[in-house]
Amino acid sequence: MSWYCAYAKDKPLHARYHDTEHGFPLTNERLLFERLAMEIMQAGLSWTIVLKKRRALNKAFDRFSVTKVAAYKERDIKRLLADSSIIRNRRKIEAITENANRLLQIRRTHKNLAGWLAAHHPRSKAEWVKLFRATFVFMGEEIVNEFLMGINLLPGAHRKDCPIYKQIQKVMRFGKEGRT
């Protein structure tokens, strides 16, 4: 199961994320979009880098407002590429922008990303990967797996002996969300 429980324990940046967000159910569209973008940004990098740049990414990407990011033009891409406080990778930035446009399309049929996820749940990891690749861009197997595990749609975020695992089970019983 999850190696992250032991890894995060003595690392304050990771411990906060592990204890309050990782593996908790999530339905807020802005936060779901932020998490998806963070997973895209993490590809080929460490999660530590992404967590350190999270605040700057939120500022640079208009707090991950789907509508605002979907409206980005080339000048916005150039602005982001010039912003040294974020991860500056054109392919990743363009993928986040394109995925915002695809989320606007999802709103037409499923109200929001949470509705789309709920409509397709449950699925195996392989089925999720296939669906994400057909729906979004820059969707590698690990990006999809970590995103879905991080929002409790795939198992493995925490070991069963992790105290946070028990908290998540309580949250699941009462239908609450993690971070809002």
Q: What would your notes on this structure say?
A:
The chain has one domain: Endonuclease III, domain 1 (Orthogonal Bundle), CATH 1.10.340.30. With 180 residues, it is mainly α. α3 crosses α4. The protein is globular. It has 11 helices and no strands.
The coarse overall form would be globular
Low-confidence stretches: none
Largest sheet: none
Structural class estimated from helices and strands: mainly alpha
Provide the CATH top-level class.
Mainly Alpha
Number of helical segments? Answer: 11
Helix content: 55-70%
Name the CATH homologous superfamily.
Answer: Hypothetical protein, domain 2
Q: Per DSSP, what share of the residues sits in E-state strands of 2 or more residues? A: under 5%
Rg for CA atoms: 16 Å
Instruction: Give the SSE order as H and E letters.
Output: HHHHHHHHHHH
**Architecture, according to CATH?**
Orthogonal Bundle
Walk me through the topology.
Blueprint: H1 4-8, H2 12-20, H3 29-42, H4 47-60, H5 66-70, H6 74-82, H7 90-110, H8 113-120, H9 125-135, H10 141-150, H11 163-174
Helix pairs in contact: 3-4, 3-7, 3-10, 7-8
